[in-house]
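Hi! If you just cloned this repository, the fastest way to understand the data is to look at a raw example. We've pasted two of them here, unedited. The first protein comes first, obviously.
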Amino acid sequence: MSGGASLGEVVYSVDIEVPVQAAWDELTKLGKVQVPMMNTVLECDLEPGSPMRYYNPSRKRILVVGTLMEIDPPHRMVHTYRFTDLDESETLVTWQLDEIPTGVRVTVTHGRFTDQTGTHKRVDGGWAFILKTLKAVLETGKPPLMARLAYGAMSALSFLQPKKTLAENVLKYEERPPGA
């Protein structure tokens, strides 16, 4: 795995010994838990302009929202990204999946940071965790022990998350007129 942060962009990549379609299918799986994506459930129409929402497994909380900007299956997906518990601007995430002789290279680039924000601090290292978990899930069928422990703790402590992450509150926020 390679990666790291620069001033304005976080870039991580991992080589996975599966066909590119398998990685794409996991990253765009709808309505079921995506274990590598912090054990969340993605809701999206997978059409440019569609809202994207990553729910916790109980679907009571929405942890990340965005808008799908570009999609070119099974190689590229670009979307905006905002943690619902932070009052920060949207950033931009680009997924690039390239076929390599041993399988697929998955690269995630996260940018459009306006400053050293809470989002930047979370994703610098968070993407490494996600890609490591993606590799393990696709190659072995199960996440690493650290991921399972982290997800168990996240689930047990979900009641501590701010109320603004509750699905009904996030959806109300999204329905506000611009600038409200």
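Ok, and the second one:
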Amino acid sequence: MDEVAVAIADPVRRHILTLLRDEPLSAGDIARRFTISRPAISRHLRVLRGSGLVRDELVGRQRIYRLDPGPLAPLLDWLTALTTVDRWGRHLDALETEVYRTRRERRSRGPAEHRREHTA
């Protein structure tokens, strides 16, 4: 998961992944879409290949790159767990607010009403 996080930390590599999401591309096709040098694109592709996010295949004289989203799954699971905890926190905050509101309403009705509710 750490290699994947490092790989997607760079905006150029994220852009490459977005390009490969739509279609497989050769290294030359990828390099033509950026203003940085072709060797720099090769280094980014090497990092992506090392993380498992990109697979390459030699077709004739060209190396074709394809996205492999599989290694993103553990990172996605971890991020989902973080947002799920936050969602539960909001639900518990809402429940706490409702409990305080109900207690305040019972106190405002007076002691006789309050006692009757506890004896039922």
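That's it. A detail worth noticing about the second one: The chain has a mean pLDDT of 89.
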